Structure formats: structure tokens, C-alpha cells
């Protein structure tokens, strides 16, 4: 994690941004810098400063030093849909060199410690012909997976971890995020996840709608 990481999820809506913000605060516990990046974000609101995405703003707020928004989110796409569709509607071409340049600038601000949050699940493309794995390999980052703890998560988690390693990327571990109140078999699900996944559990985030990610950073041990 000293050189940052790439955060993916088992699906859309599993709390990648919440977990990423908490992880940024955990990385900063040693007093060092750490900044977030959302390379491509669809679903933005127009502001006096330009298009802004809620997830990217959350990562910017959790960063220290606080980077310029255009570095955090080089591609802010208005429509709340898949990036391939959103970029076509916006008349924008998402290109890897632009993402690499923004990451390099962020790395310069934070001594290389940049947390990059992906889109949707692992196999959701960033653009036509540009997979998330392409960006991860270009940046040589380890991958942290956020597991939305709910019925079906074991299958989604195993498939995602398998896809990450099959794409030649390093699976660094996973974070369990309770996206619904714990059920009677929650502990058993966690045991199955720990046994099945090829990397360690880096922490568990409780079901806490509206919680401040900084308050839950102590639940994570990024290493």
C-alpha cells in the first residue's frame, strides 16, 4: 500500500467509495499523505466549477493534501450510466494517457500513495477497448476488493478475485462492507469468504448508513 492501490468491487452499489474514503483515512494514520482518484465517473452534477461527481468529491475530501478536482476525476461524465454509454453521450473519448498523466501528478503530491477507485465491478470497461485491468497493469498497482456483505456475495467475491488474478493483476486483499443489517448467518459468510479468497481480509465496515468514513478507518488495517 506504500505505492497506493486500486479499489474494485463485487458489483455496483457495494460501497466502494465509502470503503475507499475510509481506507484513505487509514493510510494517513501514520501522518503521511494519501490521495484518492476516480479516473472515470458517470453521473455528475453541473456546478459553477464544472461537472462534479459525488464519489469523486468524497475521495477528494478524504485526501491529504487536497488535490485539484480535475486530477482526482479527469473524466466527469454527466449521465448516470455505464461509462461507455455516458462518454458517447457526452462526446468524450476516455484515453489511457490522460489517466496516467493525472495519476502521475497525484503521485507527485502524495509521495506515490494514490488510491484509485474503479467503476462498477471489475469487468465493467472504462471505455471501448479500455479495461480496468489495463489501467491497473499500466500503474502496477495491487487490487483491493470491496465485498458488499449480503446474500450472494460469496459467488460475486470469488468470481471477481478469480478475474483479477486471471488478468495478471495482484490481489492484495478485501474489505467486507455491510450493505444491509447483519443476518443470522453473517459470521458464517465471513468465515467462508476468508477461506475462499486468495488474499487477506483488510477489515470489516459495519452497517452504518450516513456514517463518516473517517470514524470507521480504525476498522481497516491496510498494511
Describe the global form. globular
| Low-confidence blocks of residues | none
Broad structural category: alpha/beta
As laid out across the biggest beta sheet, the strand order is: 2-7-1-8-9-10
Q: Characterize the largest beta sheet: strand count, sense, and whether it forms a barrel.
A: 6 strands, parallel
Question: Could you characterize what this model shows?
Answer:
- This protein is an alpha/beta fold.
- The protein contains eight helices and ten strands.
- The chain starts with a strand and ends in an 18-residue tail after the last strand.
Q: Which properties best describe this structure?
A:
223 residues, alpha/beta, six-stranded parallel sheet
Reconstruct the topology from this structure:
Elements (H helix, E strand, L loop, with lengths): L4 E5 L6 H12 L7 E3 L2 E3 L2 E3 L2 E3 L1 H8 L7 H4 L2 E3 L5 H8 L5 H14 L4 E8 L10 H8 L3 E7 L3 H14 L4 E8 L7 H11 L4 E5 L18
Parallel strand pairs: 1-7, 1-8, 2-7, 3-6, 8-9, 9-10
Antiparallel strand pairs: 4-5
Helix pairs in contact: 1-2, 5-6
Describe, in short, the structure shown.
The protein has 223 residues and is of the alpha/beta class. It has helices at residues 16-27, 54-61, 69-72, 83-90, 96-109, 132-139, 153-166, 186-196; strands spanning 5-9, 35-37, 40-42, 45-47, 50-52, 75-77, 114-121, 143-149, 171-178, 201-205. The protein has a six-stranded parallel sheet with strand order 2-7-1-8-9-10, with helices on both faces. A two-stranded parallel ribbon has the order 3-6.
